[in-house]
Structure formats: C-alpha cells, structure tokens
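Customer ticket, subject: "Can you confirm the structure for DNA-binding NarL/FixJ family response regulator?"

Message body: Hello, I'm evaluating your service for our small team and ran a test protein. I'd like someone to confirm that this is what the system normally returns, since I don't have a reference to compare against.
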Amino acid sequence: MTTVLIADDQPLQRFGSRMLLESQDDMTVVGEAANGSEAVRMAAELHPDVVLMDIRMPGLDGIEATRRITSAGDRTRILIVTTFDLDEYAYAGLRAGASGFLVKDAQPEELLAGIRAVATGDAVVAPSLTRRLLDAYVHHLPTAPSSEAPPPDDPRLASLTDREREILTVIGKGWTNTEIAARLHLAESTVKTHVGRILAKTGSRDRIQAVILAYDTKLVETS
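Agent reply: Thanks for trying us out. I re-ran your input and got the following:
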C-alpha cells in the first residue's frame, strides 16, 4: 500500500486527488495540507511514501517545503504537480530534492503511474524531457563565475570508475538504459547495475538527481 500526502492550497484540487487515489487498491491518502508548512509538519508526523506537492501555496511554498522534507532524510519522496505555465519552477523543485513533476492537466492514469514510479524510486519525468527542462530553465539559477566552476575531480565523482563516469555523463544527456546499452555495447542488465552503483556512490535519490549532478559537475554543458 502506497501512502500519499496531498499538499495543495485549493480544496477542490485536494478533493479530486483524494477521490482518484482512494479509488485504487494500492493507494491510500494519509493527510491533506493546505500550505507548505503544513506539508512539512505532516510529512514528519505521517511519513508518507509520496507527497503530491503543489508549488504555489501561501506562506511556505512547495519548493522550500520539498527542500525541508527531503533534507530530513526520511524515505518520503516528492512528486511536484504544477500548472503548465509554471514549468520554470519545476527545475528548482527537482534541485530541492523532488523525484519528478507532472502538470495538473495530466491524465488520471499518468498521475497514478507517476505516484507508483516515485514510490519505487524511479524518476517520473522521462530522461529526454528532463534534459529539455534543464536546458530551458538552467538560466534561472545563479551562475557561478567560470573561475568557480566545479573542478574535474569534484568529490561527488571521486568514487566513480571511468565507466560509471561515462554512464553518468550520458544519463545527463538524456540517454535511456536501452540507448546506453546499444551505444556502449553493454547488456541492459549491466547498465542497470552501473546506474544503481552511480546512484549509491553519489548519494543521488533517483535518476533525475543524477541528471542534475551531471549538470552541476559540468559533465554535461547546457545547450
């Protein structure tokens, strides 16, 4: 059973999400939060598997709430649910520790699939779409002077083998496991093993966080 906390300042949105989730045999809603502060408090009390997190809420917004929940080190994962014209906030949400994002006009089955994916540790956003998001909105982040760019021996990469560093680079470029296997002449099971080791060694919560790491450490440059 996947437990879900719904964080949204719109009562009708919360009601609709609850009705959808509770129609599923494998999901249950453990609480509703009307703002970011409530979401942080309830996540600490209830330890849900997944928080459906709106971005724009009164007081503490969804991005800061995400940052506080994920930094607490609990198993709770965050799925950002935002409106189409607020996609620029999704990048900040992913950097804050969210495991993915969806738009509010997504089909019900997409939301359900997204919750299940996040609950099992997968990324919701396809790698290629993630890269387009990063390329489009990376300019919203503070840009460090070139003299302050992360060095080639960034400590987050220090424990990676050459092959793992290569695979992290192409993950950042949006390659799927199937594409990595085909282009690097590896078995897909071997790729999955490498990806798992990369996530563990770098402390990345999921594939999206690995993509962000590849950008942060300059393994991948924005186009």
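A couple of notes from the result: The two ends are 41 Å apart (CA to CA). The chain has two domains: 2-123, 155-217. Feel free to reply with more questions.
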